[in-house]
């Protein structure tokens, strides 16, 4: 049976807790946290990103997150807390579900860049 984007987002939102910008800022201050911006490079170039965030476009996430991949990014560590964001929260929700499926346990979706860029310094 085919799955719609709406169904995929519902599953992702059920699996990945949504957090506020204040909660994200506190997690970042606590340390051992990876912040991932899953927007495409032109979006990041146009608006900037959260200080310290790693930009991995949604299409490359699985390759960067998998230690067995030749494209693995060492910043991805399954023991860290992972906070994801995108432009409005949809891609970060889907990305969070993928990371959960890959064995990352502490994964959170803060939603859209515009929703929290004022709460955390860029």
From TrEMBL:
<dbReference type="InterPro" id="IPR036873">
    <property type="entry name" value="Rhodanese-like_dom_sf"/>
</dbReference>
<protein>
    <submittedName>
        <fullName>Rhodanese-like domain-containing protein</fullName>
    </submittedName>
</protein>
<dbReference type="InterPro" id="IPR001763">
    <property type="entry name" value="Rhodanese-like_dom"/>
</dbReference>
<feature type="domain" description="Rhodanese">
    <location>
        <begin position="29"/>
        <end position="121"/>
    </location>
</feature>
<dbReference type="Pfam" id="PF00581">
    <property type="entry name" value="Rhodanese"/>
</dbReference>
